[in-house]
Amino acid sequence: MMKVDVLTLFPEMMDGVFRASILGKAQEKGIVSLNAINFREYSNSKHGTVDDTPYGGGGGMVLKPEPIFSAVEDLVSRTSTTPRIILMCPQGDTFTQRKAEEFAKEEHLIFICGHYEGYDERIREHLVTDELSIGDYVLTGGELPAMVAIDSIVRLLPGVLGNETSAVTDSFSTGLLEYPHYTRPAEFRGWKVPDILLSGHHANIELWRREQALKRTLERRPDLLDKVELTDQDRQFLKQLQNERESGR
Questions:
Q1: Which of 157, 178, 225, 242 stands the most exposed, by the fewest C-beta atoms within 10 Å?
Q2: 234 catalytic residue (yes or no)
Q3: Residue 223: which domain range?
């Protein structure tokens, strides 16, 4: 079972997400344990203080190192595994599908969610193993980014989705954007499902899906094509698409 601990000042933000949908079912199946812990409980102040004004002056408040260190050390002392300790921070590495796949191999993850102006730098330097950001923008805290990352990671664990091929064919998992999906009815308001998907010819369907994934990636995220391993057939199809686009100008 994977264990995921989230250190936050607002554990109630996690309740609905952790109990609902795929994450809730994953916990019911015993695949993952999700825990939100208020690190204010680890404050060494009688008032539960977890932040203070920054040295050198300036606006805002900075999270103190003592409660964060104490909380992480307490969690680590209860397990025999070495956890990845992840700081959610706008300055961190951008979270990607590849990162999700990497973290999904771990047994224990600890996420640290901050508020206020920032973290005492000693938390970065001497405690965490990873810093993650979900994009180039700033939120009021790390809770929402942590929930995004956790959802992305947990859905990759065996048995979570039920259909093990779902996660494998997701956008970004193959390096490409995912091909289009269709379901019943075969015709809706005059729009028909592509005939090939109704043919029952699995080899042709797989080829069509690959080509559609390549086409969609070329149109929407061509930068991804530089990072994915392409076959000679893939390159020939992409060249054909590019020639068609140029001739249509």
A1: 242
A2: no
A3: 187-247
Annotated binding site: 114, 134-139
Binding residues for S-adenosyl-L-methionine: 114, 134-139
Cis peptide, bond prior to residue 185, ω within 30 of zero: yes
User: CATH number, domain at 229?
Assistant: 1.10.1270.20
Q: Of 101, 131, 151, 170, which residue is the catalytic one?
A: 170
**Number of domains into which the chain is organized:** 2
Among this protein's residues, is 155 annotated catalytic?
Answer: yes
Task: Answer yes or no: do 124 and 203 share one domain.
Answer: no
- CA-to-CA dists, residue 91 to 95, 99, 119, 138, 171, angstroms: 11, 16, 11, 10, 25
**Radius of gyration of the chain from its Cα atoms, rounded to whole angstroms:** 23
Predicted TM-score (pTM) of the model is: 0.85
209 is catalytic: no
